[in-house]
Amino acid sequence: MTFGDFDPADAVDVEPADPEQVAVKLQALRLAHGFTSTRWRDLTDAQRAARIALVAALLAWLRRQGAW
Amino acid sequence: MTGIYYNGVDGPDMVAAARAAGMSVRESATTDGWQRRARSSGGFSSPPLGVFWHHTASSTSPANDLAYMIDGCDDAPVGNWLVDRAGDCWPIAAGASNCAGQGGPATFTRGTIPADAGNTRGWQIEAANAGTGEEPWPAAQVDAFFGLSNVLNALAGNSPRDVITHALGAGDGWTDRKIDPATAAAVAGPWVPRSVTSSGTWSLYDIANECAARSGDQEDDMTDDQLRAITDRLDRIAAAQQADFERDGTFGPKADQGISQRSLIYDQLGSIGTKLDLIIDAIT
User: Fold this and answer.
1) What pLDDT is recorded for position B277?
2) pTM for this model (two decimals)
3) Is the dihedral of CA B109, B81, B34, B75 positive or negative?
4) Beta bridge partners of B164
5) C-alpha pair distances (Å), B193 with each of A6, B183, B190, B210, B248
C-alpha cells in the first residue's frame, strides 16, 4: 500500500523516546514478523508493565551509551 | 505514559470536544485505541501551539487511509486526525504523531515550535485528497477541516489563526519538502484559497483568516463611522499611491480582504489592526 507523500523525514522530532510507546511498537514489530501472535491490546496489564519496564531499562542504557 | 494525551483522562478529550462543536466524528475498529496512541515519544510535551494542515496525497477509501495511518506505516501513527471526503473526522492519536517532521521553526500566538519539533508541538490533521488537482475538495470536507482545526486550537488554548501549512508555501509554512495542502484550484464551495506555489499550495494567510472568520474571532471593534472614515482614506491612498500594504499580522480578516481588493469596505466589516491606524495617521 502506498500513501502519497509520507517519507521518513516526516517522522523526525527532537523529543526522547517514551518507554510505553516503544514497547507498543516493539510488540507490533514482533507481531508483524511472526515472533508473537498477541497484539498489544490483548496483553494483560502485568505483561504490558513488564515490557515497558524492559524497554525503559534499554532506553536508559542507550542514553548512557550516548545514543542521544 | 508520558506527556499529554487528549483522551479525557490524561488531558482534555479531543473527540468529545469535536462532537460538542458539531463535527461528525466517526470511529472504527481500526481507530480503536486512539486514546493512548502516539509516536515513539508519547504524548505532547506541552499543549500544541498550533494546527498543521496536510493532505494525504492518496486516492482511496477512509478505511484504507486509516489502515495505513494507524497500522500500515512503519512510522505510524500518521497524524492526529483524518478528515475524509465526506467531512467525517476520524481520531487517530491523542498523543503526538508523525506527520510534520523536518522543518520550521514556526511562531504562533503562545510560542515558537523549534526546528524539527512539529510532531510533538503541533496538532496534525490529514485531509483525504490526492493533492494533484485531479479530484475536487468537497465543501463539506473543507468545512470539516476548518471546524476541526478550530476545535483543536481552542482545546489547546490557541488562537484560531494558529495554523500552518505543511508546505513552506509563500515562506510562512513548515517545510519546502512538501506541497500540502493542495491544490487551490480544486477547492469547491464558497471559500477558495489563493495558490502560493506552482503546485497549488493553499495560502496559509487565507487559511488563517478563514479560521478566524469561522470562529467569530475579532481583534478589536470600531464604530461604523470610524470604519467609514478609514476606508475612505484607504481608497484615496490606494488610488493615488498604488499602495502595497504590508501584512503585519494585525489586520482583521475582513479589513485585509478589503485592502487587497482595493475597494471600499462596506457594511459591518470587523476590525482593523492598530498598525494600520498608525500608518494612515502618518500619511494623511
Assistant:
1) 56
2) 0.80
3) negative
4) B52
5) 24, 9, 10, 9, 19
The values of phi and psi at residue B76, to 5°, are -60, 150
What is the Cα–Cα distance from B224 to B226, expressed in whole angstroms?
A: 5
Closest alpha carbon within chain B to A19: B1
Per the structure block, which three cell numbers stand in for B239? 488610488
- Dihedral of alpha carbons B59, B142, B49, A26, sign: negative
Pick from A4, A12, A16: CB nearest B57: A4
Contacts of B241 (CB under 8 A, 6+ apart): none
Which residues have a Cβ under 8 Å from the Cβ of B111 and sit 6 or more positions away? B49
pLDDT in tens, B186-204: 999 999 999 999 999 999 9
Residue to test with chain A: of B4, B5, B39, B40, most A Cβ within 10 A: B40
Q: What is the ipTM for the molecules in this complex?
A: 0.86
- Best of A13, A22, A51 to disrupt the B interface (most B CBs within 10 Å) is A13
Facing residues of B175 across strands?
B167
Do residues B14 and B91 touch, judged by C-beta distance below 8 A?
Answer: yes
Q: Where are the beta strands (DSSP E) in chain B?
A: 51-55, 81-83, 89-91, 106-108, 111-113, 123-127, 163-165
Spell out a b/e string for A23-37, using b for 16 or more CB atoms within 10 Å of the CB, else e: bbbbbbeeeeeeeee
Cβ–Cβ contact B65 with A under 8 A: yes
